[in-house]
Amino acid sequence: MLGSLLTALTAAVERSQSAGRTTSERIRRFETEQLTLHVLAATVVFLIVLPVLIAALVSTKRAGIVTSIGDLVPGGHALSNYRRALIGLEFWRFMLNSFVMSVAVVVGKLIVSLLAALVIVYYRFPYKNAVFLFILFTLLLPVPVRFVPLYRLTTELGMNNTFFAITVPYLASATTVFILRQHFLSIPASLVETAKVDGVGPLRFLWSVLIPMSRAVLVGVSVIMFVYTWNQYLWPLVIINAESLQVAQVGLNLLRGQASTGEVAWSMVMTGSILTLLPPLALLVLFRRQLLETFTIQQK
Amino acid sequence: MSTREVFTDRLQAGVLLLPTMVVSMVFLYYPTVRAVGLSFYRASLARGDVFVGLENYRRLAGSSEYLRSVLISVLFAACVVVGVMAVALCISFLIHEINVGKGVYLVAVIWPYALPPAVAGLVFLFIAHPNIGIFTSYIEALGVDVNWFSNGPQAFVVVLIAAVWKQVGYNVIFMTAALGNVPESLTETAELDGVSRTQRLLRVYVPIISPTLVFLVIMNTIYGFFRTFPMVDLMTKGGPAGATNILIYDLYRTAFQFYEFGFASAKSVVLFIAVGLLMYGQFRLSDKYAYYGG
């Protein structure tokens, strides 16, 4: 659909191109063209936002049933809905668990990966390439490939239904080590040489030179790691049975089950959905510049 | 040898690497090796493990249900890749061509990168619901009977739309960055030569950004295979009649509904090989296209 719109637009622009010759005509043509592009872009944005917009509207209604476009008016129950979801149905607990899990994984991964990247860029030792390959090779082992044996292992360790199970297995990250390595390689070598001459040790160098020089990238990878961890579904679903430890993604389904006994089922589910979307969305909007910068490193 | 390698204390290096190495070993490598081992056993939680040799693999090869799941996964991932990339390319090009307000449009389009797949699944379940969905009555007015709780192809399409919606933003991030790196002079030359907009996109930009496109094909394939699990789980549970039973969902059910851990491990090994082939494919392809990367 978008493609044909673009083609039609291009054809129109071409027709006007062959017509216009004078400068003022050319400027006018440029303006109409830009106007069309803006209208198209606004339509695209509207379509992409629409499903969440509907969810947000439903979260303000009592019954939460919208079967026609005419039903798309905000209701007056926003406050009571959010209060009921968070407190009455105890969704705050799932949110808190997700938050603690995500922050723990982000901080843990950051420390562990900073140390690994430091060694890989600034140390000379035998089999270094093998070590780097060993870390990169874990890209081939995403959670879906190993969650069955990981479940057995975690069960044998007696770690089912623990905070340990939903944080520690996430701490090694090939992606983060790789991004940090690429970034460190873009920092002039003369800095570390000077540091060495001045007798600055590796950890001091990391703390007072590398980290201050990597702020944007560190913020960027932190957002990537937070979004990744916050959105985890499969692993918490299988390893956590205790409701008190469950995360928001899986908690949404429990909310659906609990709420479906009452009449306000869908408005509760949409309220929970909006709540679950907000933390990663806020981070993306706040730190979009650092995030975009970091993504350009990742792809290299 | 890089001049950056100024530290030489091997013990220090080992200690600093230890956390990454230990976690990788215990929670990434060991379970994978274990999956290979377990795939030769009939293993369940209740009874002990019994060595059965290649029986699990023989069962897999002979299972028409599994074969169907493979076909559905491949078809689903292919549709995700094509759908996501076609839409994302149009949107990225649109943003690229706009003169003011690019940054605002960009954020307004890429935000579903942060959208939890579970939320995407539940929101689509709601708005496309066969009985109470907001668009259902309009689509039915067009003569389509919306019944994707029982109609396989319809369910496939609804999950696909949700999956594409969630993934377009991620692609736009990389595509707009790549388009932004195309030298201005090329665009000007193309315009002077009277090359039309669509031609400029397809003949000039697409070849130049092809390394990015190869990277995205791999990321989208992995997304289509694995990350869509929450949507399938919340919207269709693999149904109706297996129409959305992608491999990861099939694997989940084998392990956590039927508790057949040996059989599930054999399925994990197959997935591991699939990921390996994909990554190898990306490696080879990006080598081939490195010329365009410049």
TrEMBL record, chain A:
Similarity comment: family membership: Belongs to the binding-protein-dependent transport system permease family.
Any single Pfam family the record assigns to this protein: BPD_transp_1
Membrane topology type: Multi-pass membrane protein
GO BP terms, alphabetized: transmembrane transport
Domain spans labelled ABC transmembrane type-1: 95-287
Protein's name according to its UniProt entry: Glycerol-3-phosphate ABC transporter permease
Top-rank taxon: Archaea
CDD domains: TM_PBP2
Record-linked InterPro entries: MetI-like (IPR000515), MetI-like_sf (IPR035906)
Location of the protein in the cell: Cell membrane
Chief place where the protein resides: membrane
Keywords from the named record: Cell membrane, Membrane, Transmembrane, Transmembrane helix, Transport
Cellular component terms per the entry's GO annotation: plasma membrane
Transmembrane segments: 37-58, 99-125, 131-151, 163-185, 205-226, 264-287
TrEMBL record, chain B:
Protein name: sn-glycerol-3-phosphate transport system permease protein UgpA
CDD domains referenced in this protein's UniProt entry, alphabetically: TM_PBP2 (cd06261)
Keyword tRNA-binding: no
Start and end residues of each ABC transmembrane type-1 domain: 70-282
Stretches that traverse the bilayer: 12-30, 70-95, 104-128, 148-165, 204-226, 261-280
Alphabetic keyword roster: Cell inner membrane, Cell membrane, Membrane, Transmembrane, Transmembrane helix, Transport
InterPro entries tied to this protein: MetI-like, MetI-like_sf, UgpAE/MalFG_permease
